[in-house]
Amino acid sequence: MKGNITMETVSINKVLQLFNMLSKSEQAEVAEKIDMQTFEERWQIADKSLPDSELGEDDIMKEVRAIRYAGKKN
Questions:
Q1: CA torsion, points 47, 53, 56, 60, in degrees to nearest 10?
Q2: Which of 2, 11, 26, 46 can pair with 22 through a Cys bridge, CB separation 3.0 to 4.6 Å?
Q3: pTM score over 0.85
Q4: Would you call 37 helix, strand, or coil by DSSP?
Q5: Can you tell me the distance from the alpha carbon of 24 to that of 20, in angstroms, rounded to the nearest whole number?
Q6: Could you tell me the CA-to-CA distances from 49 to 45, 46, 52 in Å, in that order?
Q7: What is the pLDDT of residues 12-49, one digit of tens each?
Q8: Which distant-in-sequence residues (6+ apart) come within 8 Å of 19 by Cβ?
Q9: pLDDT confidence tier of residue 1, bands split at 50, 70 and 90
Q10: Class of residue 30 by CB neighbours under 10 A (exposed 0-12, middle 13-18, buried 19+)
C-alpha cells in the first residue's frame, strides 16, 4: 500500500478564489474543460425541462417565420 490519501474538502468560494488567480487564458481553458465535463449532465437537465412533442417541418418553418418577421410588420 502506498499510504493513505486524504481528500481535502474544498468550498466553491475557495475554488473561485484560485480560479481568479489564473490568467485570463488559463481561466478560459479551465472553463472549457468544466464545460466539456459537465455538458452531458447539463443537457439532461435542460432536456427534461423541455416538452416532448413532435414537430413537422411546416410547424418549424411557421415558428422561424414568426420570429424572423415579428419586427418587420408594417
A1: -60
A2: 26
A3: no
A4: helix
A5: 9
A6: 7, 5, 9
A7: 999 999 999 999 999 999 999 999 999 999 999 998 99
A8: 27, 30
A9: very low
A10: middle
